[in-house]
Amino acid sequence: MKELAHLNKYFKKYWSKLLVGLFITIIARVLQLVMPRLVKESIVVIENFMDGQVEESAAKGLLLEYILIIVGAALLSGFFTFLMRQTIINVSRYIEYDLKNEIFDHYQFLSLNFYKKNRTGDLMNRISEDVNQVRMYSGPALMYGINTITLFACIIPIMFMTAPKLAAYTLIPLPILSVLIYYISKIIHERSTIVQQYLSTLSTFTQEVFSGVSVIKAYALEPSINNDLSTLAVEGKDKSMDLAKVNAWFFPLMVLLIGISNIFVIYIGGKQYINGEIASSGVIAEFVLYVNMLTWPVAIIGWLTSIVQRAEASQKRINEFLNETPDIKNTVFEETPIKGKIEFKNVTFTYEDTEITALDNISFTINEGETVAILGKTGSGKSTILDLIARLYDVTSGEILIDDTPIKELNINSIRQAIGAVPQDAFLFSDSIKTNIKFGKENATDEEVIEAAKNAVVHENIIGFSKGYDTVLGERGITLSGGQKQRVSIARALLKKPEIYLFDDCLSAVDTETEEDILNNLKKASKNRTTLIVSHRVSSAKNADKVLVLSNGKLLQEGNHTDLNSVEGYYKDLYYTQLSEKEN
Ligand SMILES: Nc1ncnc2c1ncn2[C@@H]1O[C@H](COP(=O)(O)OP(=O)(O)OP(=O)(O)O)[C@@H](O)[C@H]1O
């Protein structure tokens, strides 16, 4: 229960509703007790009538009175049971809502490293499946727990007061039922976890197949994919059958044990009645009803135990993530406006997971408003520089200064708000083009969106779609070409009008002519704004104030186009190679 203590703050939050639920449950169960007692009284009345102790009309009157009370109590008990669910189960839904929000908020707060260490499926599972297990504890388990305790507390003393020996014999099979249900629930849980795992493997597999359907068709992989799928499906079916087998034991066992308890009541009660140890056969009927009322709560003890164990395990998994702290910590809480000067001082950076040193003792300065192109072979560390400026990672050694202040002494939100980043793999949400562009500035007007799209040279493409800017993208809509995606992503950054632009190889999928147009527009749009353009093409570097050439994480060359073109080296070679490619 140590892990589940995390939920206590929520129980405290909703304590008044839970207290009301507790009272309602007690009332509902007490009302339920009216029926067995009055059934016994009715039989006593019939026995007395048979013995001639009561007149027919008086007996009929009493029976009618008892029937009406039983019906009234049953209706009231039903109504209170409804209220019980409305209070306690509703509280568990509130707790589920709060817990999901808490986890989601925490996820957003964590650094990129956390997402690299953990698989998306795992993140999703903890916020959905695990929270669901925990909800079973905070709702149904709590409700049935209170229910069971109340029923036990009321029925068992009544039984012992009415007929102690009969009560003792009748209750013997019930703990056995409880233990059996506990073991069966445990096996059911183990097997259903395996079935769940198969289902999730199957859905991940099919999801990947659907996403990569073009590759599968192009390589005619359908037969082998079908084979893999049917192997997975057959294994999943076998596991489901295993689960169905134990599930099938659950109710027959319950019925068997209730039957045994009933036989005890009738046999021992019957003997006691014959011996005169109990006054009326009505007691036997009363006890049969008690046994039936107790069976479900007794069975539930086993079920509750396994629910609590499962919830504990799920909450442990949730707590593991909730206890994660972000690697990148914001220690400055007031806003720190950014102008745009960037300085790298002997920066070395090694990725924790791969232990690849992406940047090795790099130093350079970019003045406010300057445009800098970063060139270099693939894997030379260009994107890493941009990630470090956005403080997605902290440097391993050395220092990054923004506006002459160490980056760690600046508010992390202020830094990110001052940045308009266009990543290498443009990511667009399954929403309209307009919403995707407005991601950069939520309150932007339509005119501003159009202006940004024009500067990114994608406006003509957008208005070519029948729904224009309202065209929905992604799974629910159309698929943009690689170049169109990149340009929508550029429009998003331009709309933001940030102090620092970070363009990460974002023109790789557009033709050289469009690239030229975009670069000209960028020049205007990014005037007086610090701009870093990572590229493989010299065309992106020609107009830059400065060019940085990287090789294996080291700074190989630094200078402007003219400087670098006048010395032998990577830049000049690249320039002439690309020039001759263009001419050819
Ligand atoms: N998230 C990451 N985790 C671990 N290693 C990484 C990560 N990103 C990059 N690397 C490694 O760091 C090195 C530098 O990568 P980086 O992406 O900065 O290069 P790049 O110059 O931008 O390459 P490209 O031109 O292909 O985009 C590479 O060896 C890469 O494998």
TrEMBL record:
Which stretches are transmembrane? 14-35, 66-84, 141-160, 166-184, 246-267, 287-308
Q: What is its main location?
A: membrane
Provide a Gene Ontology MF annotation, just one.
Answer: ATP binding
Name of the protein in question: ABC transporter ATP-binding protein
Give the superkingdom in one word.
Bacteria
Q: What keywords does the record list, in alphabetical order?
A: ATP-binding, Membrane, Nucleotide-binding, Transmembrane, Transmembrane helix
Bilayer topology reads:
Multi-pass membrane protein
Q: Which CDD domains match?
A: ABC_6TM_TmrB_like (cd18541)
UniProt-listed SMART domains? AAA
| UniProt entry tagged with the keyword Iron-sulfur | no
One Pfam family name is ABC_tran
Q: Where in the cell is it found?
A: Cell membrane
Transmembrane is among the record's keywords? yes
All copies of the ABC transmembrane type-1 domain together span 19-310
Instruction: Show where the ABC transporter domain sits.
Output: 342-577
